[in-house]
């Protein structure tokens, strides 16, 4: 289906669309607050523009950064955004999402340090000073999406039926598939604390305890039906993150800056309708007993009572900043990344992407308003193309967010912040088109490494030939599949 959602020439066109849909998405013509410094913990960054964690699946097979990893981080360094949220980095090999994800261990530390230094020096080459730049590292365990085998926190009936134990054979997680044990989780807490110690020792300005996108720590937050110390009550479901934060504070003191990217709304798993190709929820029962931030009587809506409690708890344990996200890139990606065109293994968006953008803004706004002094980083801007900073500017002025960051927008257009500063606007010829080629590359595994590198195909010359190779290897679709893919 080739419906074109984004057909706006001016900010007014998008405004009109938002008004027509009754959505609270507003824009400011003149950029000013995005250029103001922001205080984060004991540091101050030079502007309110950020870059979200964007892994490129281009690490070496031992988890050290590869050539393209260095290239991406340097480009981010030169870009001018003052918050660079370094990408997903596994704390143990069994928690890797793919064979080319970064891995933090003793052996890889010096190369991660070089990556950080390269990013900072790229920044200095353009701006001379890098004392107002913050570079962090996202620490993760991929849980259900660990590529060696899924490590699940509990049996989520809808997620299980789309979680593959062996994708090539179509084998999914069955009811008797083992759940990660309490003892394993306790050991993993220590792995996170080790990783935090290592990351801060080599000079990362902050570490992110990742609790988003339905990876392990996110899944634990919704583990209502899990038995034992890490399931059931909110207290048990947040035990892991509380223990990690407490151990960090007692072992490393207050100097290590802690942040967390978390899902404020998991949503429910969707699948493609085989006839229409649109995404639709996998049937579920009410009250809904799974996931985080969902309304139990209507899980298509958010219920922010627990996410707000989580933020309170993170602050009480010394977190300096949160990054609000939502959804799963595996089973409901229209929530997390409003898109123009579906990835090959996805579905047509069941909603207009502007509705998804408005959901991000509404939920992030509610969190920021509940915690007005907390640094809150917002997500979901890239689909707005050259107008995303105008929306960010409005959100900052309306106190719905502190820092406006972009993910796909940053791999398309790393120097967006510099251009905005110099010209007051963004170049439409450089922005993300949200056509999911980067995600298609992430999902492509049939090369000698078991993983293709991911980047922006339309905007970054490195990735067009890689994408061509991927397409050339793809089986030609039958007529039936060509129509509904
Ligand atoms: C290729 C690719 C890699 C990503 N890598 C990460 C990651 O390492 N960690 C993370 O939290 N999110 C990751 N994301 C999600 C983005 O950070 C971001 O949340 C998402 O793209 C929506 O924001 P946007 O509209 O600005 O792109 C990734 C997304 C894509 C498409």
Features:
binds flavin mononucleotide, two-stranded antiparallel ribbon, 485 residues, disordered C terminus, alpha/beta
Give structural notes.
The protein has 17 helices and 15 strands. It has a single domain, classed as TIM Barrel. Strands 3-4-6-9-10-13-14-15 form an 8-stranded parallel barrel, surrounded by 6 helices. The chain is of the alpha/beta class. The structure holds flavin mononucleotide. Flavin mononucleotide binds next to β4, α13 and α15.
The largest pleated sheet is described as: 8 strands, parallel, barrel
Query: Regions with pLDDT < 50 over 5+ consecutive residues?
Result: 480-485
End-to-end Cα distance, whole Å, is 9 Å
Which architecture name does CATH use?
Alpha-Beta Barrel
Shape: globular
Rg from C-alpha positions? 21 Å
Helix percent band: 25-40%
The kinds of small molecule bound in this structure are: flavin mononucleotide
The CATH superfamily title: Aldolase class I
Domain unit count? 1
CATH class type: Alpha Beta
How many beta-strand elements?
15
Determine the CATH topology.
Answer: TIM Barrel
What is the topology?
Layout: H1 11-21, E1 38-40, E2 43-45, E3 49-51, H2 67-79, E4 83-90, E5 102-103, H3 109-127, E6 134-140, H4 157-160, E7 164-166, E8 171-172, H5 182-201, E9 206-209, H6 216-221, H7 234-237, H8 239-252, E10 257-265, E11 270-272, E12 279-281, H9 305-316, E13 319-326, H10 333-336, H11 353-370, E14 375-378, H12 388-397, E15 403-406, H13 408-412, H14 416-423, H15 437-442, H16 463-473, H17 479-483
Parallel strand pairs: 3-4, 3-15, 4-5, 4-6, 6-9, 9-10, 10-13, 13-14, 14-15
Antiparallel strand pairs: 1-2, 7-8, 11-12
Helix pairs in contact: 2-3, 5-8
Flavin mononucleotide binds at residues 52-55, 87-88, 138, 212-213, 261, 325, 336-337, 379-383, 406-409, 438-439, 442, 454.
């Amino acid at each position: 289906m080739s419906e074109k959602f984004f057909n706006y020439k001016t900010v007014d066109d998008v405004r009109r669309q938002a008004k027509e849909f009754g959505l609270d998405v507003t824009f400011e013509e003149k950029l000013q607050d995005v250029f103001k410094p922001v205080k984060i913990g004991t540091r101050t960054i030079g502007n309110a523009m950020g870059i979200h964690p964007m892994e490129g699946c281009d690490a070496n097979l031992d988890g050290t950064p590869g050539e393209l990893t260095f290239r991406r981080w340097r480009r981010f360094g030169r870009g001018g955004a003052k918050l660079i949220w370094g990408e997903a980095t596994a704390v143990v090999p069994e928690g890797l999402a793919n064979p080319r994800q970064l891995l933090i261990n003793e052996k890889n530390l010096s190369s991660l340090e070089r990556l950080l230094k390269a990013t900072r020096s790229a920044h200095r080459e353009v701006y001379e000073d890098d004392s107002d730049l913050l570079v962090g590292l996202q620490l993760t365990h991929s849980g259900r999406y660990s590529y060696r085998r899924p490590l699940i926190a509990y049996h989520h009936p809808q997620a299980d039926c789309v979680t593959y134990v062996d994708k090539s054979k179509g084998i999914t997680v069955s009811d008797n598939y083992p759940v990660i044990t309490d003892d394993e989780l306790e050991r993993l807490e220590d792995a996170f604390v080790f990783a935090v110690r290592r990351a801060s020792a080599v000079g990362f300005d902050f570490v992110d305890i990742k609790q988003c996108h339905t990876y392990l720590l996110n899944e634990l937050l919704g583990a209502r039906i899990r038995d034992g110390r890490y399931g059931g009550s909110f207290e048990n479901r947040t035990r892991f993150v509380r223990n990690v934060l407490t151990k960090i504070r007692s072992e490393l003191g207050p100097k290590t800056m802690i942040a967390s990217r978390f899902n404020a709304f998991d949503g429910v798993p969707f699948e493609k309708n085989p006839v229409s190709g649109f995404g639709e929820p996998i049937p579920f029962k009410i009250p809904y007993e799974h996931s985080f931030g969902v309304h139990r009587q209507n899980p298509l809506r958010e219920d922010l009572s627990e996410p707000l409690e989580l933020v309170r708890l993170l602050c009480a344990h010394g977190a300096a900043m949160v990054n609000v996200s939502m959804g799963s890139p595996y089973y409901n990606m229209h929530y997390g990344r409003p898109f123009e065109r579906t990835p090959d293994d996805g579905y047509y968006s069941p909603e207009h992407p502007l509705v998804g953008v408005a959901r991000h803004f509404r939920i992030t706004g509610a969190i920021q308003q509940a915690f007005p002094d907390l640094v809150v980083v917002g997500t979901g801007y890239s689909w707005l193309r050259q107008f995303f900073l105008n929306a960010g500017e409005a959100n900052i002025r309306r106190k719905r967010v502190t820092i406006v960051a972009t993910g796909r927008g940053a791999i398309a257009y790393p120097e967006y912040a510099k251009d905005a500063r110099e010209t007051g606007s963004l170049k439409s010829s450089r922005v993300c088109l949200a056509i999911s080629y980067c995600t298609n590359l992430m999902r492509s595994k049939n090369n000698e490494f078991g993983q293709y590198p991911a980047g922006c195909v339309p905007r970054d010359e490195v990735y067009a030939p890689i994408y061509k190779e991927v397409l050339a290897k793809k089986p030609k679709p039958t007529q039936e599949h060509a129509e509904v893919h």
